[in-house]
Design goal:
mainly alpha
Length: 162
């Protein structure tokens, strides 16, 4: 079964962005406050708002592409793409949030980072297998790019403690 390229893009984008953004928010707020309840609140708010925002953005951007396409080559369903984006972001966001629910700070923050980095690595391998490229190279690329972005949240939290 072939995977529609637009749906694959939505899946990869949703998971990757959730792993990076949610982890960045969680570890940044944890570093800045050391308050588990605030970290949980920030994580849940991030996941809920961003999943919906990403889905709406997916819908609107693809609708624009469909409207511009006079050849009819874009055959993806706008609603399916938006739902895939929402689901991917939501599930991806649970990866770094789960340690916050289960463990105490600061160990939970370390586990959130570790789970997110592992998730990015696995996402890179999975993506590579689908598009038939080097799994290690793809996994390393996703890990480095996503990990660097995640680090920004931690640095901001450390510098702007409340």
């Amino acid at each position: 079964m072939a995977i529609h390229e637009d749906y694959l893009r939505s899946t990869v984008f949703g998971f990757q962005d959730a792993l990076v953004s949610t982890t960045g928010v969680i570890v940044g707020v944890a570093a800045g406050t050391q308050d588990k309840q605030i970290v949980l609140l920030a994580g849940v708010v991030t996941i809920m708002v961003e999943a919906l925002s990403m889905a709406v953005g997916q819908y609107m951007s693809e609708k624009t592409v469909h409207q511009m396409d006079k050849t009819g080559k874009h055959t993806d369903n706008l609603y399916v793409g938006a739902l895939i984006m929402y689901g991917s972001y939501f599930l991806g966001g649970l990866v770094p949030l789960t340690p916050i629910v289960l463990y105490r700070l600061p160990e939970a923050s370390i586990l959130s980072i570790a789970f997110s980095l592992i998730g990015l690595f696995v996402l890179g391998i999975t993506r590579a297998k689908i598009v038939k490229e080097s799994p290690f190279r793809s996994a390393l690329e996703v890990l480095i790019l996503g990990g660097a972005a995640t680090g920004i949240g931690l640095l901001v939290g450390l510098f702007l403690k409340v």
